[in-house]
Every structure is written in C-alpha cells, then in structure tokens.
Amino acid sequence: MTVSERAHELAIAAAQAAADKKAQDIVIIDVGDQLAITDAFVLAAASNERQVLAIVDAIEEALLNLPEKAKPIRREGERGGRWVLLDYVDVVVHVQHTEEREFYALDRLWKDCPTIPFVDRDLARVEAAAGSGE
C-alpha cells in the first residue's frame, strides 16, 4: 500500500461520510504507484443530483471536523450535480450520479491498482448485532 497515513485517514473519513448519506458503490483506490499527484481516489455514487450534492457537503463537513482539518484545494462539477470532484491533494473524491459512475467506470479504469478496504460502520454494527443474536 502506497498511501500515506494522512491519505488513508482522509479516504476512510470521506467514504464514511458518503456512506452516512446513503452513497452507493463506495470504493477507495490506491493510485499512489500510478499517479504522482495523489495517493487515493474515493469513488461514490448517488441516484440523483440532490443526493450527489448532499454527499459532497457531508464529506466536506466530515473532513473539516477531523483533528487535523482538511479543506479541498479544488471543487469541480458542483453546478451540474452529476459528478463532483473534491481535491484534497492526498485524496481525490469523485461523487458521481449512478449513470456517470456506470458510464465512466473509474474503478475499471484503475482496476490494476489495489483497493483500500472500507466497511460502513453502521453496516458493521448491524452485522455484529446479527451475529451475536441481538
């Protein structure tokens, strides 16, 4: 794994914020060996433009609330709400409408890169409760 500790922290926090807003198909890709400009991509999909923007806002808020705050150096695509990119230097977040996610297939484009495991904490709690018989 080539991502820095900071990139890993940002990516996991962004992925969890997206999951909290019901994003779909959340994937974290370690692109550090392939790109010199960033360590990881966080990909997430939403079924409509309003949800894309809500996910983006949640990610920005979550990363601003980290002990070592993070603000994107660039935010693109917000006007259309179909594909918003947040550039945190170490991590680039792509929140796409489901149709754009399927069409552009960034995870297939970067299929040779390893992924970073992410499990939604709420899903993990539900599974843990189900496993313990609660």
TrEMBL record:
Main localization category: cytoplasm
Cellular localization per UniProt: Cytoplasm
Pfam families: RsfS (PF02410)
Origin superkingdom: Bacteria
Membrane-spanning ranges: none
InterPro entries for this protein: Iojap/RsfS/C7orf30, NT_sf
Keyword Repressor: yes
Statement: the UniProt record of this protein carries the keyword Phosphoprotein: no
Keywords: Cytoplasm, Repressor, Translation regulation
Function of the molecule: Functions as a ribosomal silencing factor. Interacts with ribosomal protein uL14 (rplN), blocking formation of intersubunit bridge B8. Prevents association of the 30S and 50S ribosomal subunits and the formation of functional ribosomes, thus repressing translation.
Database matches in NCBIfam families: rsfS_iojap_ybeB (TIGR00090)
Family assignment from sequence similarity: Belongs to the Iojap/RsfS family.
Subunit field text: Interacts with ribosomal protein uL14 (rplN).
Name the UniProt record assigns to this protein: Ribosomal silencing factor RsfS
Annotated source species: Micromonospora fiedleri
